[in-house]
What does this fold into?
Amino acid sequence: MRWKLVRSLKNHWLGLTGFMAFLDSEQMNIKDPKTNKVYQDMTQPLSHYFVASSHNTYLESDQLKGNSKIECYIKALKSGCRCVEMDVWDGDHSQPVIYHGFTLTSKLLFSDVIEVIDKYAFCKSKYPLILSIENHCSVDQQRVMAKIIKDIFKEKLFLDSALPENDFLPSPNQLVERIVVKCKKLPGGVQRKCSLTMAALEGSLSVLGGLPASPSADDSDDEPDPIEEQYEIALEFSELINICQTAAFKSFAHSKENHDSTFILSFSETKAAKLAKHSPEHFIQHNKRQLSRIYPAGSRFGSTNYDPVAFWMAGCQVVALNYQTPDEAMQLNRGLFEDNGGCGYVLKPDFMREFTSETRISPARLVPSNNWHRTVNFKILSGFCLPKKEGDGTKSILDPFVQVSMVGAPQDKKTVRTKVINNNGFHPVWNEEFRFSVSCPQLALLHLEVYDHETTQSDVVIAQFCLPVRCIQEGYRTVQLKTVGGEKLESAKLYVLVKISQDPRTN
It folds into this structure.
């Protein structure tokens, strides 16, 4: 950014245009410029990162009769999402389709979606994309799925199933521009037996290749393998799944004893909430080695979202949200993944990664024993060019106020608000300061919401902003506001003063 410097014989100063440009510069932004690029260690196992994840990515709106659109995948991938989901069912003419089964949602061809994912998978981030497949297909159409995936993704498809000796997952750096398939596969011993049987059959057929095939041979070749039928999984599809094979959760002890790090467990928000509340230390330990995916309850027909913070606090990586719904949960999600260049992978705090790290946990608290507390003094000075509420065709003037929330560990949560400034959306001045005590800054988010005060109805959010505390620059700063859906509002800003002090204490 270049600023217009006005010179005189004795003084150098910025003119009004230059000063406004200076306020809008990267140096003045509340977000630390270093976090606009990938700066974190990307050589850790996948289980050591939070992963930007979408639920039922294909849906444009609700879960019962909403449209399924390919554009939803494009939008999610362009936003930095690194785990997209698809529910795949048998379709006509042996072509699998994607839709929300047993509902009125429209259908997409599986092949069309795979082609779009291939095109946009790494448009925003070069780090691995996880393809979360809910497989409802017959064995025959699973073979079709496998062929489509291999033919379209080609070398992008990650097929190496070997793990390091320490049983850790590969790192994002080791999986650059690779697509990983997540689904249930044949048990290891069964898959090996099935593969050997297929290899022997192919060897026998090659020997007899010059002989005319008998009708009985043709018939037997078309018959489904009894092992595949028993498990309802095609060998060709199973062979695509390696470091993200799904399994049912029984207990953390069972998982530790029976699963290596290639198993990813999926939890409904209800089940995960109980585990996070009653066994947080075991959940955190589990998530140091294996991936956990959280998904919304089936009762969320309107595609609403749960609060993701409680699951991040338990170290869960793949916290899947309905990206099509611009609610507070998605604003927090976008805020978290503003970090690390928006690449979709954010390194978890060290106490959630290191097996030697001690964490003191009770039902109401989660604080690493060696953590440093911080006090965040946040002063809202003024606003500039605040937007009218969406769809408001009237000429009414805004009556804005700002709600400031600290989100993270239970004891760190706090929400405050400024006074209402009547009839001034162009340049409201507040000059109000708030103080937040933050015990776990590594997991804290600052969430700002600008409201238009209404006297006859509920107050309306007209703009918002969210950012991890660790990404905040101190001093006089500019906050670039966004819509509730995360789109940048070019002219709308808040001007703030931030001071973060650090002092060690005992809990």
Observations:
- The longest strand covers residues 488-503.
- The radius of gyration is 26 Å.
- The chain has 13 helices and 23 strands.
